[in-house]
Amino acid sequence: MTCLLHISDPHFGTEQSGVPGALLRLAQQHQPDHVLLSGDITQRARPSQFAAARAFIDQLPAPVLTVPGNHDIPLIIHLFTRLFHPYRNYTREFGSDLEPVLETEQLLVVGVNSTKPARHKNGEVTEQQIARVAARLKQAKPGQLRIVMQHHPVRAIEESDQSNLLIGRAQAIPEWVDAGMDLLLAGHIHLPYIRPLSGKHSPRTGWTAQAGTAVSQRVRGSIPNSVNLIRHECHQGLHECSVERWDYDAEQDAFALFSETDLALHRSD
């Protein structure tokens, strides 16, 4: 079985007391094979905040794959840096590849940089990005769980979040589902949920899993700090996948299992 820890929006610089330690304990307890971090690593893209994030990540018991979020590029008041060196502080700590790919025998994760320095906070994907991701998904092996990870969401459960949805999603999602995507991971709105995704030319269904804010004080309403554990295994061509939502319990000073959702993975291979 492959175990993945999906965390998002830690917003280092706004950490909530005790929560980073609790998240490290959760990771040590479950020993994920990989950690997937879907952006907004920092609050204001400052070098000190990226350094704090790097120090935390170095304590995790598994390799970490990251993509940037809109908070990981400088504010518009730093116009020159935002337009000409928007990812400078990010790349110092996390490398120059803004759209990394992770592949093992059991797993394919395709990273997408959905941030655009010319936009204040909204995310967007270009036709070139959509085509690149689809082509990579089509190369996946039959036994692999096929994941796309980006910062911005593609489905909303609250009307107020419609304005936060990825620009270009209407083209990207059907194309990626048709290409074989099983799961899209995102964050941005600090609200955890799971929703189905449809293709255009095939009857198969994919899924999107949102994560809450992992460790920051910027929790949303009554939703506490929250992360996902994803478990997947494939036996003789049959795939089983589940997403567990783990919420921080302040009384216990620990992350506790809130819900578990089994995902039906529709495969033609």
From TrEMBL:
One Pfam family, short name: Metallophos
Annotated Calcineurin-like phosphoesterase domain residues: 5-191
InterPro entries to which the protein is assigned, alphabetical: Calcineurin-like_PHP, CNP_phosphodiesterase-III, Metallo-depent_PP-like
Keyword tags: Hydrolase, Iron, Metal-binding
Keyword Metal-binding set for record: yes
Source superkingdom: Bacteria
Family: Belongs to the cyclic nucleotide phosphodiesterase class-III family.
Protein's recorded name: Metallophosphoesterase family protein
